[in-house]
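Field notebook, page 307. I keep forgetting to write these up properly, so this time I am using the form the group agreed on. The chain and the ligand, NAP, are recorded exactly as supplied. Prediction of the bound pose follows.
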Amino acid sequence: MQATLYHRYGGPEVLETAEIPKPQPKPNEILLRVHAASVSVGSVIMRSGKHPDSAFFSFMIKIIGGWPKPRKKVLGYEFSGVVEAVGGKVTAYKMGDEVYGTTTGLSQGAYADYVCVPEKWSQGVVAHKPASLSFEEAAALPVGAMTALHLMKKAGSAASQKVLVYGASGSVGSAAVQIAKAAGAEVTAVCSTSKIALAKSWGANQVIDYTQTPLAQYPAHFDVIFDAVGKLPAKQLKVLLVPGGQFTSIRSLTSEKTEYLQQLQMLVAAGQFRPHIDKVFSRSQMREAHAFVDSGKKAGNVVVRMV
Ligand SMILES: NC(=O)c1ccc[n+]([C@@H]2O[C@H](COP(=O)([O-])OP(=O)(O)OC[C@H]3O[C@@H](n4cnc5c(N)ncnc54)[C@H](OP(=O)(O)O)[C@@H]3O)[C@@H](O)[C@H]2O)c1
């Protein structure tokens, strides 16, 4: 089968296409034909071997991902696709089912014709694709939306609360705005000028353009602040909380759970959540897709069509 590989850390030019053996599912695994895969911030960080904001995280990437070369050669965490075969112990899926999810933790491997994923994993994460989502949309959902849902739950976002989503235009931020709105919160989104209309379309009640409004002029009345980009020191944002207000950030550890995907599916079915896709690339444009995400200016998600 064809896959996009990388043998060294670096820019998008390290990505190359090659033939590798088609995987065979273990008894607990599903083999699926990948239809779409996302280019998440996590994927470009693993490709480059560098975290943009932290020398410590850059060091940890090499410890986890392999040094001096990446241990796993095929990138790609998020996928959607069609089940082609199942292992003998799989009960919830059969050939032809449309599914989506993540390759669980650091396994990766979705930038290929086929990938095997466990039916169940301690924290993980495959589910039947909602019929109302395209394969591209389904591949864009898991990481950003599960991260947003996990952190929003941790912060205890609830009806009538005032919620600030700082960095509202990325994969996590666009999901956080929609999830807080679905919970009944009054949402203030912070983004740059070109993303204001999008933030409003996701349901933000107010939008602050961080390129025009200094932080000192933001209202200090928030019950919850969700930092979805991690560019500012936490203490600069925490002064905008009411006493007892909750601060949460994508810098903290998050969790992926199948139950999160199921909760997000309910929001999708209720018309309260839809992953935003900025651009869809063909698989021959994998380098271009990575370069676009490297620019740090994507809105929502970037997806590669794999069929
Ligand atoms: N903890 C976890 O498990 C976990 C999981 C997933 C992601 N993450 C992390 O979460 C972060 C967000 O990922 P992402 O995919 O949502 O998006 P991203 O690609 O990092 O962010 C894209 C958006 O961030 C905005 N942005 C950039 N600089 C900004 C600034 N100084 N102030 C406000 N907004 C700014 C940009 O919008 P504008 O054009 O509006 O500036 C862009 O649209 C990444 O650092 C990622 O590594 C963590």
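OBSERVATIONS:
- DSSP finds nine helices and 14 strands in the chain.
- Residues 142-155 form the longest helix (14 residues).
FOLLOW-UP: compare against the apo run.
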